[in-house]
Amino acid sequence: MIDLTDLYPSQSKISSYIRTYKINCDLKQVIIKDSISFKEEEEYQVIQTFPSYIKPQLIKENSQINFEGREQNLTLDFEKKDCHYKMSTLYFNSHKGLKKKFYISQLITNKSGRKYSQEFVLNLKKINN
User: Fold this and answer.
1) Domain 2-126 has CATH 2.70.98.70
2) Which pTM does this prediction carry?
């Protein structure tokens, strides 16, 4: 369990932000759960950000984001729960001066109330070549 509450300024209106995670080495799986409580009942937007050098692919019907590498495949499973997906691309120069691409996947949730909870399941699988 990680308490992330103090990472946010008081203007954010977050009273508690707890992240828990479970690692299952046999299944090559990590489960992350974020639980946020707000100081007041109101409308809010939660943006979960997942950066990657690998271009993500959204598989909407499965509520899944797929990152396919050369040797392994990482899937991020999430609960739909009123969230929508946004992907953007950033370009930067590496330390060697090479132009590189970086992808930002975001799950954006607009809700009202005092509590927010979301679970993400990361599965790593070897690609059979």
Assistant:
1) yes
2) 0.82
